[in-house]
Backbone:
């Protein structure tokens, strides 16, 4: 399968599945290159990871301004 065949498949994945794919690819590349990656943060260590990827939709306003909503940043 070529990269041009794979890209549409990736585009159709959910946001959470795209993160899982990225994690897999980075882990695989690191293994092939002999690079030691830092350990992943487990869900029990970071409660914010419980909400990652929960929401999906067309509206990107929250994504663009997440600091404003989370921290009240200007």
Residues:
């Amino acid at each position: 399968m070529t990269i041009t065949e794979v890209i549409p498949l990736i585009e159709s994945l959910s946001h959470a599945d795209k993160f899982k794919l990225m994690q897999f690819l980075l882990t695989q590349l690191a293994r092939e290159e002999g690079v030691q990656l830092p350990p992943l943060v487990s869900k029990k260590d970071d409660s914010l990871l419980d909400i990652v990827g929960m929401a999906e939709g067309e509206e990107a306003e929250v994504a663009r301004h997440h600091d404003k909503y989370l921290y009240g940043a200007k």
Remarks:
- The chain has a mean pLDDT of 82.
